[in-house]
């Protein structure tokens, strides 16, 4: 069997980096999107990869832009032939109470966190159906399950991902494709580092596990959902939240 190819959006973020590294570590050819491939962070990230002995491929793409996703897909198909696994992990926050939220903050968060899942997945779902194999993993959030102060935009986008996941799972199951969400709680990345210290301490105080999660704890679940072993898990949501929110 040829190497499976995984596309991870937001692969230079905290969670995305760990997912890329772990997928590469178990033998996938991994491609990630980045908004600005010239970014200094990416150069140092590449150096770390070389030291660790593997390579992550890069493609420039703003995943909130449908046209950019069309171009990205033809570039990837020419270079890698196929995409077997998609991890929709790109995400942003623009927090504000609704009565103070500007339309730009609403739209940007919906575009990057939710519309992007359509923009990216739409490019590859047809060929996955033809090849009768695919794994689609959408990174949602506990705040899409519970709602969160100041995050009507983010909570709506992440809740929307669950509907997208369940509907696409039903459409795709007979074609060997699984579609699942992972809903992380609070994970130690630049996204949560941006939360003011006092607020973060109050959040951690509410987590029964007594700590935030690590990106690797999310990545290990993503690797499992990408594997053949998970083929009967479809349309599911896997929470990773240290018992912050327990649900059936
Ligand atoms: P980071 O801020 O570390 O990473 C976010 C990533 O998204 C970056 O790689 C960024 O790329 C990318 N991105 C942002 N906008 C775009 C865009 N328009 N097109 C392409 N890529 C884009 O966040 P995390 O690693 O913490 O978050 C990863 C995912 O996990 C997100 O979807 C987030 O909502 C979700 N999540 C995170 C939690 C946490 O506690 N950290 C909890 C629950 C869910 P670039 O740097 O190039 O801009």
Topology:
Elements: E1 5-8, H1 14-25, E2 29-34, H2 40-52, E3 57-60, H3 66-80, E4 85-88, H4 103-131, E5 134-139, H5 142-146, H6 152-172, E6 177-184, H7 190-193, H8 197-205, H9 215-226, E7 237-240
Parallel strand pairs: 1-2, 1-4, 2-3, 4-5, 5-6, 6-7
Helix pairs in contact: 1-9, 3-4, 4-6
The structure holds NADPH dihydro-nicotinamide-adenine-dinucleotide phosphate.
NADPH dihydro-nicotinamide-adenine-dinucleotide phosphate (NDP) binds at residues 9-10, 12-16, 33-36, 62-64, 89-92, 112-113, 139, 141, 184, 186-187, 189-192.
Protein name: Acetoacetyl-CoA reductase
Pfam families: adh_short_C2
GO molecular function: acetoacetyl-CoA reductase activity
Fold and architecture overview:
- This is Acetoacetyl-CoA reductase.
- The protein starts with a strand and ends in an 8-residue tail after the last strand.
- The chain has 248 residues and is α/β, with parallel strands linked by helices.
- It is built from 9 helices and 7 strands; from the N terminus they run βαβαβαβαβααβαααβ.
- The chain has a single domain (5-237), classed as Rossmann fold (3-Layer(aba) Sandwich).
- The longest helix is centred in the middle third of the chain and has 29 residues, at 103-131.
- It is 48% helix and 15% strand.
- β2 (29-34), α2 and β3 form a beta-alpha-beta unit.
- The protein has a 7-stranded parallel β-sheet with strand order 3-2-1-4-5-6-7, sandwiched between helices.
- The mean pLDDT is 95.
- It binds NADPH dihydro-nicotinamide-adenine-dinucleotide phosphate.
- NADPH dihydro-nicotinamide-adenine-dinucleotide phosphate is lined by residues 9-10, 12-16, 33-36, 62-64, 89-92, 112-113, 139, 141, 184, 186-187, 189-192.
């Amino acid at each position: 069997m040829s190497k499976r190819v995984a596309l991870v959006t937001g692969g230079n973020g905290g969670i995305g980096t760990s997912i890329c590294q772990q997928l590469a570590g178990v033998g996938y050819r991994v491609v990630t999107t980045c908004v600005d491939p010239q970014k200094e962070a990416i150069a140092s990230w590449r150096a770390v990869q070389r030291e660790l002995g593997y390579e992550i491929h890069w493609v420039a793409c703003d995943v909130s832009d449908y046209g950019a996703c069309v171009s990205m897909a033809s570039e990837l198909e020419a270079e890698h032939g196929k995409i077997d696994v998609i991890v929709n992990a790109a995400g942003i926050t623009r927090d504000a109470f609704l009565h103070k939220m500007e339309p730009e903050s609403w739209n940007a968060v919906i575009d990057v966190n939710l519309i992007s899942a359509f923009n990216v997945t739409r490019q590859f779902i047809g060929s996955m159906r033809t090849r009768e194999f695919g794994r689609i993993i959408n990174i949602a959030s506990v705040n899409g399950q519970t709602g969160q102060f100041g995050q009507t935009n983010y909570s709506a986008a992440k809740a929307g991902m669950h509907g997208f996941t369940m509907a696409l799972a039903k459409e795709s199951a007979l074609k060997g494709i699984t579609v699942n969400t992972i809903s992380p709680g609070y994970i130690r990345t630049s996204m949560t580092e941006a939360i003011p210290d006092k607020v973060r301490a109050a959040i951690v105080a509410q987590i029964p596990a007594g700590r935030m999660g690590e990106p690797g704890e999310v990545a290990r679940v993503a690797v499992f959902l990408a594997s053949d072993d998970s083929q009967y898990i479809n349309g599911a949501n896997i929470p990773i939240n240290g018992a912050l929110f327990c649900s059936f």
